[in-house]
Design brief:
Layout (H helix, E strand, L loop, with lengths): L1 H30 L2 H51 L1
Length: 85
């Protein structure tokens, strides 16, 4: 019996704390404009898309540069081998 009363008191106190937090945060929820939230999401998605495209472009550029540099190195090596022999 005593345990039940303590548990009920704990539940009531917990619910009152939760409700007080909710009521304190309600004015902040009223200030949130759903249109601005979607605009922000669209803006961040656009930035992500641009960043991904930039990374792909840089990757393509670096692979081309590495291929050209490997080709140039092999040409230089072959030309130095010819002159040494």
């Amino acid at each position: 019996m005593f345990l039940n009363i303590i548990l009920i008191i704990i539940i009531v106190v917990s619910l009152s704390i939760i409700l007080s937090i909710i009521f304190k945060k309600l004015p902040q929820l009223n200030r949130v404009d759903p249109e601005k939230v979607t605009e922000y999401q669209e803006e961040t998605r656009e930035e992500e898309i641009i960043e991904e495209k930039f990374k792909r472009d840089v990757e393509k550029y670096l692979t081309k540069v590495s291929k050209i540099s490997i080709l140039a190195i092999s040409i230089l090596r072959s030309s130095t081998n010819i002159s040494i022999n």
